[in-house]
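Dear all,

This email documents one entry for the complex benchmark we are building for the journal club exercise. For each entry we list the sequence lines for every component of the assembly. Then comes the predicted three-dimensional structure of the complex as a token string, followed by one or two observations. Please use this as the template for your own entries, and keep the labels exactly as they appear.
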Amino acid sequence: MNQRTINPWTWQDQLGYAQGVLVEQPQQTLYAAGQGSMDSDGNLLHDGDVAGQAAQAMDNVETVLAEAGMTLADVVRYDIHATDLQHYFMNGHEQVAKRFAQAGNIPAGGIATEVPGLAVPGMAFEITVIACR
Amino acid sequence: MNQRTINPWTWQDQLGYAQGVLVEQPQQTLYAAGQGSMDSDGNLLHDGDVAGQAAQAMDNVETVLAEAGMTLADVVRYDIHATDLQHYFMNGHEQVAKRFAQAGNIPAGGIATEVPGLAVPGMAFEITVIACR
Amino acid sequence: MNQRTINPWTWQDQLGYAQGVLVEQPQQTLYAAGQGSMDSDGNLLHDGDVAGQAAQAMDNVETVLAEAGMTLADVVRYDIHATDLQHYFMNGHEQVAKRFAQAGNIPAGGIATEVPGLAVPGMAFEITVIACR
């Protein structure tokens, strides 16, 4: 598979995402469920702590990717839903951006949106990813 | 096409979705518009009844899939938007989960999120799907 | 690549989207970041003007597509997030629908949803697209 980052501008470079990722004929595409701050029994962790929730959600993204034989380097797009989006950007987004940076990958940014509620009361953050290899 | 369910955990098994679906080189991918509780003329049905809306929306998902030569068994990811998410989980989600179960398919769960409003006043529920064959 | 419009009904014809797009073995798939009314330095334009924001966002979609060697004709699905969805439909959606119409393309409609907030304060509209060629 060939993968190319699409960035007509530079302002997004410090925000941890790309304006697009162009994928050519992947062998595999992973459609992953949204990941929040759940433990392995499905209980919410880090209630009230968006940085902790983002870090745990990224752990879970990695676990799902690993089960599919993939890593964070294979993610082509991620979407963010947060119950307080500006609070997330100031306190939680670094947990997401640095993990992709450590994997040497800058996925397309999809949507980052504020929402009134997520699947489980207390969830402040959820990330969905699509990965290709 | 080869399709593999990705579930590093078990807690999601009773919720009607998988943590991921890994797709290998599909012949066809269907990007479907979000489906709500519309009749064939585009009028909203089941105002105030989220279970009725979810059932009708699933009928419409099946109609769109059929027009593309597909069935619910081909859906790899679904996303839920509801104006009252906890009310939907308690009263409407069974309509979604059982239809996929009847088709012998457990798609990736995408995002399930609460939203202040959908395209048509009175819409309480909308589902988007991606299907591969 | 072969691409087929899926429309079991006709009521959506005047709304600028299709119920589905069926894609066969694309050479390339572009996962694009959500586009809002940003200038090339990342500053928000047209604060308080949803039609202006939609037009500028569509310019940006075209710029991202062009960087990937694509045009609006290659978009297979678009999703709309707006802070006032009915206001957007009445005042901004024409800017989106006419641009796709001019490109001779009717993508799948994905989700159109109201949200309390988007990435930058003042953003009233954001569009995400997936394109295939």
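Observations: The radius of gyration of chain A is 14 Å. Strands of chain A lie at 2-6, 20-24, 28-32, 75-82, 112-114, 125-132.
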